[in-house]
Design a protein that fits this description.
Layout lengths: L2 E11 L6 E8 L4 E8 H12 L8 H11 L5 E9 L2 E8 L5 E5 H11 L3 E4 H7 L1 E2 L16 H13 L3 H19 L1
Parallel strand pairs: 4-7
Antiparallel strand pairs: 1-2, 1-7, 2-3, 3-8, 4-5, 5-6
């Protein structure tokens, strides 16, 4: 499998959004980026670690990281392998045994950030989901398939309220496509 290493760049708040934020990850050359939608609780968790104002040593992610280190050289990587119904599919992979455990993408990125674990994304997924990286963007673009069903419905309602019927139609089509897949 061909994969690309990602670098965590930070968290970006969604202005006027529904209590959500984005994790921004880039390729090593900082040419392309993906954005992963997170809730305000995860944004807070990242903020604790990025601000360095609070001692997080006794919090669960740090404790589990220390347990893994004490197990005698266990090495891991995080692999983002797919996006289904607005959720990135992520695994924590033991580099020695190749055993993998599915994880929520935001938790996997938090673990990787704390433990200095490398983060990878499947090459074709990166090419399909990524956009050009800009260090100081005025806004961030995210693919529609990276939004969950609730976010899609809210975005469609906002498009209708704003009388942007073309966007509303596009969002409706994505919602219907997902409903059809669930029925199959």
């Amino acid at each position: 499998m061909r994969k690309i290493q990602l670098i965590f760049q930070g968290v970006s708040e969604i202005v006027e959004g529904p209590e959500l934020a984005l994790l921004v990850l880039t390729d090593q050359m900082k040419e392309r980026q993906i954005s992963i939608v997170i809730d305000k609780h995860m944004e807070y968790q990242f903020g604790l670690r990025m601000g360095h104002k609070v001692n997080t040593d006794r919090l669960l992610p740090e404790v589990l990281t220390n347990v893994a280190k004490q197990q005698g050289g266990m090495r891991f990587e995080v692999l983002i392998s797919d996006v289904i119904n607005g959720e990135y599919r992520c695994m924590l992979v033991n580099e020695t045994t190749f055993e993998s455990l599915p994880m929520r993408a935001s938790d996997a990125i938090l673990f990787a950030t704390i433990s200095n674990t490398p983060i990878y994304i499947e090459y074709n997924l990166m090419m399909r989901q990524s956009v050009r990286y800009s260090a100081n963007p005025r806004g961030l673009a995210i693919p529609i398939n990276a939004l969950n069903d609730e976010m899609l419905n809210k975005a469609m309602q906002k498009a209708i309220d704003d009388e942007d019927y073309e966007q509303a139609s596009y969002l409706r089509d994505e919602i219907n496509k997902r409903k059809k897949k669930k029925e199959e």
